Amino acid sequence: MNEVDSGTKFRFQELDIWRRAVALGNELFDIAEDLETRKLYRFAEQLRAAGLSISNNIAEGSGSNSKEEFIQFLNIAKRSAFENANMILVFKTRGLISSDIARKVLCGLEEECKMITGFIRALK
């Protein structure tokens, strides 16, 4: 996993779920770049946006003033992971990505969802 270090420290940077979401986002960006080489720009754009949404919502939620609000953002992040899983499954069915890549990304997304769910439980 690539370390994201800007020299600053925000609360979310210490969260494993955020670091994992960034790594997953990078994998999804790689797939999006491949889709663009095949002129599938809309698919690439949507995959990038949904991939970035996971870490964005974790980061945004970490700035909340209440646990309840943070949990809302974590739930949105989890839904974004489901959105990405759906796209990966459709792309695999259409032959746009290999079964190996799909399996790797889907396993990562599933693990991220489990981690987010566990974190939500810990916050409650």
Keywords:
124 residues, mainly alpha, 4 helices, 0% strand, elongated
Any chance you could write out the topology, listing elements then pairs?
Blueprint: H1 16-37, H2 41-62, H3 67-93, H4 99-123
Helix pairs in contact: 1-2, 1-4, 2-3, 3-4
Short characterization:
With 124 residues, the chain is mainly alpha-helical.
What is the distance, rounded to the nearest whole angstrom, between the alpha carbons of the first and last residues? 29 Å
Percent of residues in helices: over 70%
- Structural class by SSE content: mainly alpha
Whole-number average pLDDT?
A: 94
Which blocks of ≥5 consecutive residues have pLDDT under 50?
A: none
Strand runs, count: 0
**Cα-based radius of gyration, to the nearest Å:** 15 Å
Strand content: under 5%
Determine the number of helices (DSSP H or I, runs of at least 4 residues). Answer: 4
Rough outline? elongated
- What pattern of helices and strands is seen along the backbone? HHHH
Largest sheet: none
Give a written overview of the molecule.
- The chain has 4 helices and no strands.
- The chain has 124 residues and is an all-alpha fold.
- It starts with 15 loop residues before the first helix and ends with a helix.
- 29% of the residues are buried.
